[in-house]
Amino acid sequence: MSGIEAIGVDEIQWQRGHRYLTLVYRIDRSCRRLLWIGKERKVKTLLGFFRWFGKKRTASLQYICSDMWKPYLKVIARKAGNALHILDRFHIMAHMSKAIDEVRAKETKELKEQGLEPVLTRSRWLLLKRPENLTEKQGSKLAELLKNNLRTVKSYLLKEEFQLL
């Protein structure tokens, strides 16, 4: 258990309802394995991991990856503030997709109110799907849409740029 520099924190749903297990993985380059399982998805659960892991090992952590659940963020900042906290890509992309959809809906409404051509109508999935997953027809429609100077287009381009990182 020595030499652990990077961990990942996640949760899985188990049984029915909102019952979760908190999982902590070792995610070093040389070794990836499950380290710890805690019942529930609560502050006290993650605090329990850090108690089990110990102050010395926690102090040697360089990286911690987790989602954006606020209790995780707070516990990690408090217990392992020296480690670089990396937010997981899946959850960042989910937030970006939600933001694009909100911008698109608002901009569609504004264009309609101004009496302009509703170029964003039926464009939701064009903007949310990965370009490589679009059909040829959808790809053509997206290419036309991207020629417009809209906030929605700018949001989409930012999301795609992030995907390349």
Report on the structure:
Residues 7-163 form the Transposase IS204/IS1001/IS1096/IS1165 DDE domain. This is Transposase. Pfam families: DDE_Tnp_ISL3. InterPro entries: Transpos_ISL3, Transposase_DDE. It comes from Candidatus Kentrum sp. LFY. By secondary structure, this protein is an alpha/beta fold. It has 2 domains: 6-87, 2-Layer Sandwich (Nucleotidyltransferase, domain 5), CATH 3.30.420; 90-164. Helices cover 48% and strands 19% of the residues. It contains 7 helices and 5 strands, in the order βββααβαβαααα. A 5-stranded mixed beta sheet has the order 3-2-1-4-5. Helix 3 links the parallel strand 4 and strand 5. Helix 4 runs antiparallel to helix 7 (151-164). The longest helix is centred in the middle third of the chain and has 25 residues, at 89-113. The chain is elongated and about 65 Å long.
Topology:
Elements: E1 6-13, E2 20-27, E3 32-39, H1 43-53, H2 55-59, E4 63-66, H3 70-79, E5 84-87, H4 89-113, H5 124-128, H6 136-145, H7 151-164
Helix pairs in contact: 1-3, 4-7
The residue ranges in which pLDDT falls below 50 over 5 or more consecutive positions are none
Number of strands: 5
Using only C-alpha atoms, the radius of gyration works out to: 21 Å
What is the overall silhouette?
Answer: elongated
In helices, the fraction of residues equals: 40-55%
Q: Please tell me the total number of domains.
A: 2
H/E series, N to C? EEEHHEHEHHHH
Strand content: 15-25%
CATH architecture of the largest domain: 2-Layer Sandwich
Strand order of the largest sheet: 3-2-1-4-5
Q: Termini separation (Å)?
A: 32 Å
Mean pLDDT: 94
Biggest sheet: strands, sense, closure? Answer: 5 strands, mixed
CATH topology of the largest domain: Nucleotidyltransferase, domain 5
CATH top level of the largest domain is Alpha Beta
Alpha plus pi helix count: 7
Indicate the structural class: alpha/beta
